[in-house]
Prior knowledge:
It contains 11 helices and 18 strands.
Amino acid sequence: xxxxxxxxxxxxxxxxxxxxxxxxxxxxxxxxxxxxxxxxxxxxxxxxxxxxxxxxxxxxxxxxxxxxxxxxxxxxxxxxxxxxxxxxxxxxxxxxxxxxxxxxxxxxxxxxxxxxxxxxxxxxxxxxxxxxxxxxxxxxxxxxxxxxxxxxxxxxxxxxxxxxxxxxxxxxxxxxxxxxxxxxxxxxxxxxxxxxxxxxxxxxxxxxxxxxxxxxxxxxxxxxxxxxxxxxxxxxxxxxxxxxxxxxxxxxxxxxxxxxxxxxxxxxxxxxxxxxxxxxxxxxxxxxxxxxxxxxxxxxxxxxxxxxxxxxxxxxxxxxxxxxxxxxxxxxxxxxxxxxxxxxxxxxxxxxxxxxxxxxxxxxxxxxxx
Length: 370
Ligand SMILES: *Cc1c(COP(=O)(O)O)cnc(C)c1O
């Protein structure tokens, strides 16, 4: 008998979500973002499910990119942080990987590498995120040397939005777009290059970007069925379906008397007689330890709350009003019937972190047909 916790990965939901991204993208092509093991959903299974529809795959990890090629992926593959050392460049050539170049060192290493093939490159511009990306002066230099290099088959300009998911009165994307326009206006020839701008939030919220004209967008989280801005719009409202359902079972049921405390530090105390269930799921499975009492959970199909500390292998749930609950009752931690966004919000984090934290000890069941 195996431990009852399981992650169900619904690949038909993934494919549906891709079509939603497609609808928003207009003429733009889509990099399906599959970094971090496809946000915890399994790189090869996600790429396999999108093999016949994704225009390309974008990720960070070189091993993952090679695994995609070895699995037969023929679409372009975009390496979102480029290479970390020039030693990797022969592999970029061998596996036909498109590097994002975000420093002048990368640009110089690339044109100095004497690769056996020409490769497309993305030039990442800093327009206000202030993490990765070239400044205006660096951009001018980079463009000049890349244009002169026989190693480069095409150049695409890329930037990343810091606030595409913010509230309507927040900064949004306008200041970064203005910055981008200024950069391109001040650097001779820059306007002719195609652009790659949008993450899921920008893709779904700013249709005007399609006029910019963006030729590639980079949706990630929406493919996995979570909302890029859950305080503004739910995944359901965006017509997105959950791909990952983390579910388990009650492995014990217990009655508490008033004053009984639950779990480590006894940080929940029963005020009246009540029943609680113990779920085979803990932080070692990827459930967030900082999820407080009150985090939503489904038991036997009914919504209730967690009580007390999350432990390594167990959480406790309130069974008040769930008369059907018994040892063995099914529990949904997030996914079908309970959005990861709600759980993440209750735990003070975002769905991305929940998905990426799914632990290797959780068995995975894959659903292919919806
Ligand atoms: C992760 C990532 C994305 C995808 O972002 P989502 O919010 O998941 O859509 C897009 N672009 C870059 C550069 C990224 O690192």
